[in-house]
Amino acid sequence: MPSGSRCARLASGRIVTDWQQVLRTQSAKLGVELTDPQLGAFERYLGLLLEWNRRINLTSITDPARVAVLHFLDSLTCLAASAFPARSRVADVGSGAGLPGIPIAIARPDLRVTLFESVSKKCRFLEAAISTAGLRNAAVSCARAEAAGHDAGLRESFDVVVTRAVADLAVAAELCLPLARLGGAAVMMKGPGARDEIARGAAAVKILGGELELARDFTLQAPDERVSRTIIWLRKRAPTPERYPRAPGRPAKHPLGIDTPRSQG
Fold first, then answer.
1. Could you read off the pLDDT of 113-170 as tens digits, one per residue?
2. Alpha helices in 178-262 (DSSP H)
3. Rounded to whole angstroms, what are the CA distances from 24 to 37, 87, 93, 258?
4. In this structure, how many other beta carbons lie within 10 angstroms of the beta carbon of residue 211?
5. Contact predicate 256/202, CB 8 Å
6. How far is CA 78 from CA 74, 125, 127, 145, 149, in A?
7. Distance CA 226, CA 30 (A)
8. Using 50, 70 and 90 to split pLDDT, how confident is the model at 255?
9. Is the Cβ–Cβ distance between 49 and 126 less than 8 Å?
């Protein structure tokens, strides 16, 4: 059990920590009901996250109660923003410590979640986390999104593509929309400033075949802190032109639709 956790006993007799109870209660308010086995999976995931974080930089947040809200609950907001169709194929781009992909896979065992991460040591953590949490519906792809977007077996094959705080919307759209199937969605998890990003990224979204469907705001209550989040939901209305995504690193250096036409090539 992670250090700093306190315990409570449910009517069923099962022991849960205070952060698990917070996660269960607040996720239920989002419409995401978590079972005892799912809370157990979150506990194992948290323990491994904090253990590995001593060796590699996975998160600056290490208090279990804050992790529960600012990482786990935050990841579940995208499930509350709009419906993920049953048995969807989901991609988590730039997964890092497994956020939001692992919480999504825990909460929705019907989904098939692929975690895309380009840093090999983080890929090893993700593989260990999937095993430790007992997830049969998640897998790791140690690849950059720019390369995955041109892989014939991956391009335009996912029902939903999610990314959390990876880059400005124009950049994130170029990494995500090529992986989304026609009619599918790309979901961007953002903090303050999301509305400005929507305006800046509008041209890129259109070029890539996307359309803004909704932007929904959430407020999360962490210990001694309230944080604002915005979920941006892009619908894939047209095929992404074959030239996108551009070469690794180029989307971030020259955001599509923001730089001059010459730098977009």
1. 999 999 999 999 999 999 999 999 999 999 999 999 999 999 999 999 999 978 899 9
2. 194-207, 250-253
3. 12, 23, 26, 41
4. 13
5. no
6. 8, 23, 23, 20, 22
7. 16
8. very high
9. no
Amino acid at 45: Y
> Residue 47 carries which side chain, given as an amino acid letter?
G
> Could you tell me which of 199, 182, 203 has the C-alpha nearest to residue 190?
199
What would the two tokens of residue 75 be?
A: 């990841």
Say if residues 106 and 41 touch (Cβ distance below 8 Å). yes
Which of 120, 111, 116 minimizes the C-alpha distance to 93?
116
- DSSP H or E stretch at residue 231: strand 225-236
Provide the residue count of the chain. Answer: 265
Q: Domains in the chain, ordered, with CATH?
A: 14-264 (3.40.50.150)
Bridge partners (DSSP) listed for residue 190:
230
Residue with tokens 């099962």: 14
* Helix extents (H) in 94-144: 101-107, 120-133
pLDDT, mean of residues 19-33: 95
pTM: 0.91
Q: Which amino acid is at 87?
A: R
For residues 208 and 173, the answer to whether their CB atoms sit within 8 Å is: yes
20 in Cβ contact with 39 (< 8 Å): yes
Cα–Cα nearest to 49, from 68, 35, 32, 36: 68
